[in-house]
Design goal:
Elements (H helix, E strand, L loop, with lengths): L1 H20 L26 E3 L5 E3 L22
Antiparallel strand pairs: 1-2
Length: 80
């Protein structure tokens, strides 16, 4: 039993030594994020979307009449 434990310990140590000695691949730095065109506090640019009844609705339809909240959900309601 001691021999199996010793063999296992030596195998783990040699594997760890080989992994730590493996050359690390250089990662290229990620490109910088683009500067946003709309800043916090700016008025939102006008846009048009389809509502749940496939009617075209523009943000400008509500300007000065109602408050509008727009939420963005990445991959919401998709198979991706």
């Amino acid at each position: 039993m001691k021999r199996k434990t010793l063999s296992l310990a030596l195998m783990l140590l040699s594997t760890a030594a080989m992994l730590s000695a493996a050359p690390q691949q250089a990662k290229s730095p990620a490109p910088p994020d683009p500067e946003p065109t709309v800043k916090v506090g700016d008025m939102a640019p006008d846009f048009k979307l389809l509502d749940q009844n496939t009617k075209v609705v523009a943000l400008s339809d509500y300007r000065g009449k109602k408050n509008v909240l727009v939420g963005f959900y990445v991959f919401a309601f998709t198979g991706g």
